[in-house]
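Deviations from the work plan: none for this task. Representative record:
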Amino acid sequence: MAPRVLVNGQADTRVSALDRGLSYGDGLFETIRFMEGRAPLWSRHMARLLLGCERLALTKPDPEILLQEALQVCGGMPDAVVRITLTRGVGERGYAFAPNASLTRIVAGFAAPKLSAETWRDGVRLHVCQTRWSEQPLLAGIKHLNRLEQVLARHEWTDAGLADGVMMDAQDRVVSTVMANLFVMLDGALVTPSIERCGVAGVARAEVLSVRPDAREAELPFMALARASEVFLSSSVRGIVPVQAVGNTVYVPGPVTRALQAHWRGLGYSTEHA
Amino acid sequence: MAPRVLVNGQADTRVSALDRGLSYGDGLFETIRFMEGRAPLWSRHMARLLLGCERLALTKPDPEILLQEALQVCGGMPDAVVRITLTRGVGERGYAFAPNASLTRIVAGFAAPKLSAETWRDGVRLHVCQTRWSEQPLLAGIKHLNRLEQVLARHEWTDAGLADGVMMDAQDRVVSTVMANLFVMLDGALVTPSIERCGVAGVARAEVLSVRPDAREAELPFMALARASEVFLSSSVRGIVPVQAVGNTVYVPGPVTRALQAHWRGLGYSTEHA
């Protein structure tokens, strides 16, 4: 089914070929899961989007308008994913931009992807990516439109049995997967990689950190994964997903993973999977 | 004057709001100066574009079609700049892409910017940017659509007397300016920063390296700029532009700069500036 799309509030599927979002990746996006017209992590998505606007000196959008448009494009779908894209709009050729640039706002609704019951129960297998995150503190954390590293990393494998891939920085420190954040139980402590230099500060990651205030954001050398007792992913679309293997190292979903999956269900996200 | 635009060969000004060029910056571009329907550096632009296609696993375009479309959008303009943008087209939501993805091809013609005679003669002043290039060997050199670092760097100054800004990597090594490559005469040798880890391999840079085979690609610590006897920029749009100041350090255009400006004129680029 073709997604429903609004461009600047109007039913439309097209934007200017000279939009800076396309010319330079000059913008931001959010991918938000809606259950029966409700987005449990909405305020976290808006907080990240507004932080991104500050970092990129973009005019801040009105969250109330975004919410109305999001509801419009997912209306009728019981389990939907809404992508909101904000760009700096159409400008002159060149990197310079006017401070009062008029944004382009794209809101598109898709059916949420189905996770199998086995995935939720047993977990996923991960590829180990050769493509590394580059370090750029000015862009780390926010969900901007410059996503070629993840596109290249995702292109490394075609095996449908590999659901995602671990991405490191150039110093062999784990940062995230291509599509999600990653948590490990290490020496009895819950740890997730710092995203100060690279990576995306996921809203599901923020939710986990808020309900587990004992969790630490820290550097996570790839070698340390071998002695983790639990590994799981956090994703605003897919939720809390156990990891059963990273390359040849295998894991069994443990109590921390299960407790956070229960929290995820408690937020109102369906786990009635296909 | 609004630019003339072709999208996939058709007179059009719009593309899908779900194009991967906009969603992820998943694509490439070239900015090519045409003098009376002739682009002296055309083959260098095509070489870089095709290298970029290999790096990003994009289907290679037919250069003959690109040339015909470029001529079409700059027809009638004696001094034009044509931007060719190639994206991976419209795909499913998510970073994965099909190997046979149908590209989006945007060809847009603009009037070339005017440089003043004073700029050509006396040179430009450069800001020193705080924004650094991140290191990503997989993307270094090619002209992809992930350009937020340059957007942020260009946003650092508003003084119209500063024509461009020096950009370093995180280790205080000069890489380029925001909009051009940079050359220096250092201890009697012509040197330009290596672009193996970050930056764009400019086609004007390649032209300079081909006519000055003695030139070296090397690491260039920012501190070394202070003892350079000449500094100039190379840009396919602006040509060979002397630098008269980097921050508070001043330079006078020297014989190497002048000889390369003469070469540039010899290629057929107008230097009859406004």
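Residues 128 and 166 of chain B are 5 Å apart (CA to CA).
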